[in-house]
Amino acid sequence: MRVFISDLHSTLAAELTRYLQDDDHEVVGTVASKAQLAVAKRKLLEHPASDKPDAVSEPVALRSDRVAVARLVQRADIVITSLVADTKHAMELLKAFEKPPATDGDDDAPSDGGGSVVKRFLALSSVLTWSKNGAFAKGQNVGHSEDDFKTRKPARKYAELKTAETQILSAQRADELETCVVASGLQYGGAQSDVAWLFRQAWMYPNDDLLVPSLPGCAVPRGENLLPMISVYDLALLTFRLATAPSLAKSYVIATDRASQTTTLRDLCAGLSVLLGNGRVCDSPTDEQVDTLLVSDDDHDTSRDGAAFSVAPLQLHLCFDCPSETSVMAQLVPPEEFRHVDSGMLGHLAFFVQDFIAAMDLRPLKTVVLGPPRVGKSWLSGKLAKDYYLPQLTLASIVRDVLEHDVRDDEQQLDADANAEAKPEGSGDSDKPPTADDELRALRAALLAWRDAEAKEAMTEAALATLPEPLVVQALRWKLCSAACRNHGYVLDGLPVSVAQGAKVFELIKTETATDANAEDADADSGAKATEGGGDDAAESTEETDPRVLAKSRSKLLLDKLKPERQLQTPNRVIVLHAPRPLLEQRAQTLSEEDAIASNCTQAAFDARFSVFSAESEGLVTFFEQLPGVENRSGVEVLELHLDSDASFHDSERLLSPVQVYMEQGGKGKPNNFHPTREELKQMEREHARKRADEEAAAEQRQKEQDERDLAQQQARLAADKARLELIQREEAELLEARAKPLRTYLMDTVLPALTEGMLEVVKVQPDDPIDYLAEFLFKKGRELEMSGHSS
Q: How do the domains of the chain map onto residue ranges?
């Protein structure tokens, strides 16, 4: 048979493909992107099931290529698709599947040669279409049955999903097309998990109490709602059996695990907090946290692997009687073939934590950066911490963390001490080894005593240079055992300084948690069955069995078996920087006296630190290359970089590029760590907006200053022009005055006396025509002056 599977890149499809190909069925399907196309095709063709004479030459198509998808669907005998992932796409597949297959070539014929085999369409839906039903079907002890599927009531946001289910069920045609809807519980396992939000929160924020995401209006508050769930691996097995069954007994199938009848949301949060966080949960979210949850759901937050980080499905409160004797699950798959049905996610939580980390490519980069003083260790460590979102660990930061550790631990210890005092003697608790909290309190007390004795206020490198070696080792080991370092990794700046110190720091802790994790899957089902047996015995002694009491006792037993991994996180990346001493001394001399003292780079300190590094560098490289317990490998491949000039510190080809390649080895690019988060993106947007505003303000200020300078220059030019004009005018006046001076003298000597005399005569005589009289007088006067001139 030829089976078409949509979204071949998903974890469910990958498991289903493996089952089908191992059973000698040809698999074709779709992927979402071109990057997934080549990978999916290569995986399909590598299996012998694809090496058949009538096999399709191009078994994989892009989901956006409707023509190619329709051709693959029409050639298939069975179509398996997800209604939840894309309802519209699933209905398009059904429409294409109902059409008769093309016959324009051998490659277009169905795998059965166009025989009378009935085609089958399997739609993977969800119990979300039951979200408005009561938790139990009849009273408080009976779960819903798949035979009652016509009574399902969806919430408004899932109404379209129910409509699609109804259309698929009604498309069935006798002897031509069989349709079946598989309503699965919330899927866990792999990358596309319905409970991915819980895993992400526990992994990202291990120091915070894990929030139980109960939204306002939830049927049961504080996370006490029962979650119907199923492992993707068990769902794949069930879907495989449905696809290959000779006939389908029912057209609507419920797929949930048995543990879902007793597992609550709070149980899952408590278990994840133990394995990934601090072991505590918060079941009373603040208004701000509720708003964040609602915004996260509205934004349809997803990962690069397709996981939907939604909390809406986690509000379900439903119980199904599946698998029961009458259910399709029990009829098609024997109980022993299921991997997780009996004890569910909670019973195999350690496995699913590792499965989530692997599926999401959450590779913790545990890095050590070493080098002589002033070689740039802290700068490189800070850059790596910023680029890969890792905590930068220095001795000063670790000591501060120890001294400022959460005070709630002290309060809890006081309560524990009070309870211990109340216990009777011989209870055996006194023989228990010291816990991590006990070691932390002893370390904090020792550091406080040292700080008070040495009168150290600021935790600078110079102040910590006198810290006793045992306290340094204890502080480093405490931090490297923390959940944050285990989940995310770290960048250890400049430590250890010697081989002896490294051997003490990275000595593995003798613990049983490693064997517990391996044995947990084997013991989970037996523990679950024992709990159920205990519940039955209790039921015999009472008139009525309360399922909530049974659920709490069963979950408590599974939670008690969980133990947090307390193992020292050895490094998987080691970078050693080298530089000649004259260059380092030159860089040290650029420090001010205060900075040199604070960074322990005075002349004497520099000489001592450089001598220690020179003597220990080769030994440290060998130590890390032979370090045991590093991700099932023998040692670490050490990256050594030689910086021989000051320009080398600014040359990305010499420094940053090799470091990036080294840090991202062993995977496809930068490891996933869910960064940047929505809050970080908003912060970056605010920073960019502030930067743009600052740049605009600076540009506006520069333009304003330029305008002021231009105006001042213009006014200066106008003032200069005005002064020059006044000078020209003054010079012209002086020139005219100088030119007019001889003429004035002439007139004063010759004309003005006669004119003055004539005007006086006019005044005396007052003639009728004074102008004519004055002219006659001047004419006579002129004759007289002329006559007197001739006579003389």
A: 361-418+434-509+567-663, 678-791
Q: What is the pLDDT of residues 141-173, one digit of tens each?
A: 778 988 889 999 999 999 999 999 999 999 999
Q: Which two tokens stand for residue 780?
A: 């006579």
**Residue 594 or 714, more confident:** 714
The rounded Cα 80 to chain-centroid distance in angstroms is: 32
Total-model pTM: 0.80
Rounded distance between C-alpha atoms, residue 587 and residue 272, angstroms: 48
pLDDT at 639: 93
Residues 206 and 487 sit within 8 Å (Cβ to Cβ): yes
- Cβ atoms of 555 and 264 within 8 Å: the answer is yes
Q: Please answer whether residues 313 and 186 qualify as being in contact, where contact means their C-beta atoms are separated by less than 8 angstroms.
A: yes
Residue 366 pairs in a beta bridge with: 490
Q: Which CATH number is correct for 361-418+434-509+567-663, 2.40.30.60, 2.60.120.620, 3.40.50.300, 3.40.190.10?
A: 3.40.50.300
- Nearest Cα neighbor of 383 from 480, 479, 486, 491 is 491
Sheet containing strand 573-578, edge to edge, reads: 392-393, 489-493, 365-370, 573-578, 638-642
CA distance 216 to 290: 8
Closest CA to 256 of 201, 310, 321: 321
- The pair phi, psi for residue 542, each rounded to 5°, is -130, 160
Distance of alpha carbon 73 from alpha carbon 29, whole angstroms: 8
Alpha-carbon distance of 160 to 528, in angstroms, equals 37
Q: Which of these, 74, 90, 72, 71, lies nearest to 82 by C-alpha position?
A: 90
Please choose, from the candidates 293, 301, 297, the residue with its C-alpha nearest in 3D space to the C-alpha of residue 213: 293
Say if CB 395 and CB 475 are below 8 A apart. Answer: yes
Q: Which of 447, 647, 479 is nearest to 568 (CA)?
A: 479
pLDDT digits (tens, 9 = 90+) for 232-250: 999 999 999 999 999 988 9
Kindly tell me the burial class for residue 92, based on how many C-beta atoms sit within 10 Å of its own C-beta (0-12, 13-18, 19 or more). Answer: middle
Placement of tokens 């709490």 in the chain = 552
User: Do you know the residue count of the chain?
Assistant: 792
Supply the pLDDT for residue 531: 47
Instruction: Give the separation between CA 757 and CA 544, rounded to whole angstroms.
Output: 153
Residue 206 and residue 278 in contact, taking contact as beta carbons nearer than 8 Å:
yes
- Is 90 within 8 Å of 82 (Cβ atoms)? yes
Distance (Å, whole) CA 458 – CA 17: 61
C-alpha to C-alpha distance for 230 and 260, rounded to whole angstroms: 8
d(C-alpha 551, C-alpha 553), whole Å: 6
Show the tokens assigned to 449.
Answer: 């005593």
C-alpha 14/C-alpha 776 separation (Å) is: 137
Is the link from the previous residue into 496 a cis peptide, with omega within 30 of 0? Answer: yes
